[in-house]
Design brief:
- The chain has helices at about 5-30, 65-85, 90-115, 135-155; strands at about 40, 45-50, 120-125, 130.
- It has about 160 residues and is of the alpha+beta class.
- It is elongated.
């Protein structure tokens, strides 16, 4: 049985992204000290190990963050996987976008399950005194996949019938 084009893209991208995220987080924890920047490209790109018990940009629900954000990730993965299943067999761009988002969501979910410290972040970008939020490979997948998915869905024809005058 031959896999549809979307599956030939979806599964390798998802697995590769998840493994890349887990591997880079393990390397960061093994080789970096928390909150001690290691320059990679001057002060613009640094590795800085940090743990985020909240969500993106430091959003927090206090003591409920770990459970709430884990639950939200499980729901998001379920919804996105259903979207993948409903997509056309040749929808390889949509499959790629969904694989990146799902792979990233699963990577961060594994961190939340594994440790109460939170998600491992280590990519630190900035110029001078301005620093972007520290993030990880999973976050890159979620962001890039979401942008790609939005772009792809905006290109699809609208199948809804025109309103009757």
């Amino acid at each position: 049985m031959l896999l549809p084009p979307k599956a030939r893209v979806f599964w390798p991208v998802l697995i590769t992204w998840l493994l890349a995220d887990c591997t880079t987080k393990d390397l960061a924890e093994d080789h970096l000290l928390p909150h001690v920047p290691e320059p990679v490209w001057g002060e613009t790109v640094r590795w800085t190990l940090a743990y985020n018990p909240g969500a993106a940009t430091g959003i927090s629900l206090g003591e409920y963050s770990r459970v709430a954000f884990s639950f939200a990730a499980v729901i998001a993965v379920f919804v996105l996987f259903r979207l993948y299943r409903k997509s056309a067999p040749n929808a390889w761009v949509t499959a790629t976008a969904l694989a990146l988002v799902i792979g990233g969501a699963l990577g961060n979910l594994l961190d939340r399950i594994r440790s109460a410290r939170g998600v491992v972040d280590f990519i630190d970008l900035g110029v001078g005194g301005w620093r972007f939020w520290t993030f990880n490979v999973a976050d890159v997948g979620v962001f890039c996949g979401a942008v790609l998915l939005a772009w792809q869905l905006s290109r699809e024809p609208d199948d809804t019938p025109a309103p009757v005058p």
